[in-house]
Amino acid sequence: MRDVSPKVTGATIGAALTTLVLYAIETIWHVDLPASVEGAILTLLVALVTFVAGYLPEDPKRR
Q1: Which of 17, 20, 46, 58 falls between 20 and 30 A from 28, CA-CA?
Q2: How crowded is the C-beta side of 25, counted as CA atoms within 13 Å?
Q3: What pLDDT was estimated at residue 60?
Q4: 3-state secondary structure 1-63
Q5: Phi and psi at residue 43, to the nearest 5°
Q6: Cα gap 34→42, rounded to integer Å
Q7: What CA–CA distance (Å, rounded) separates 5 from 50?
Q8: What is the pLDDT of residues 4-43, one digit of tens each?
C-alpha cells in the first residue's frame, strides 16, 4: 500500500468526491442530471483531482 502513486490516490479520491457532489446536486436542488452530463462532470473532476494530486507534488518515482 505504501507504493501507491499519487495519481492513483488522486483518481480514487476524485471519483469518490465527484460521486458525492453529484448526489448532493441531485438531492439538494432536486435536479435530475442526464447520464451524459453526470459522466462529463465525473470525467472533469476526476481529471482535475488527479492532476493536482499526481502532477503538482514531486513524485520520487518519476526521477
Answers
A1: 46
A2: 14
A3: 66
A4: CCCCCHHHHHHHHHHHHHHHHHHHHHHHCCCCCCHHHHHHHHHHHHHHHHHHHHCCCCCHHHC
A5: -60, -45
A6: 12
A7: 11
A8: 777 788 888 888 998 999 999 999 999 999 999 999 999 9
Q: Is the dihedral of CA 25, 29, 35, 40 positive or negative?
A: negative
Give me 39's grid cell: 459522466
b/e map 36-60, b = 16+ CB within 10 Å? eebeeebeebbeebbeebbeeeeee
Query: Grid coordinates 494530486 are at which residue?
Result: 53
Handedness of CA 6, 11, 15, 18 (dihedral sign): positive
Nine-digit cell at 6?
Answer: 499519487
Instruction: Read off the C-alpha cell for 15.
Output: 471519483
Amino acid letter, 33: L
